[in-house]
Design brief:
This protein has 80 residues and is mostly helical. The protein contains three helices and no strands.
Length: 80
C-alpha cells in the first residue's frame, strides 16, 4: 500500500508496507486481523466488567476476627 490512496482521500492509510512485496491475499488477511482486533477492543471497552466472586473480593480480608467457639473454624473459611 502506498501513499497514493491517502492523497486521494485525504486520510492516512490503515496499513503501510515498509519492506517486502506482499500480495493482495496477504494484505487482505492482515487488514482483516487488524480490523478484528480493533473491533474486539471497542466491544471490550463497552461491555460491563465481570462480577467478582465473593471468594476473591479484597473486602473479605477486612472483616472482624472470628470468635472462638463451636463451629468457628468452619465460618473462618467463608467470605464475610
Amino acid at each position: 500500500m502506498t501513499g497514493e490512496a491517502s492523497d486521494r482521500t485525504g486520510t492516512a492509510p490503515l496499513l503501510r508496507v515498509e519492506r517486502g512485496a506482499p500480495d493482495d491475499e496477504e494484505l487482505a488477511a492482515l487488514a482483516t486481523v487488524v480490523a478484528g482486533l480493533a473491533s474486539a477492543a471497542n466491544s471490550a471497552a463497552t461491555e460491563s466488567p465481570a462480577r467478582r466472586s465473593r471468594w476473591s473480593d479484597p473486602a473479605s480480608r477486612l472483616r472482624l476476627p472470628s470468635r472462638p467457639g463451636r463451629g468457628a473454624w468452619r465460618w473462618s473459611a467463608y467470605p464475610a
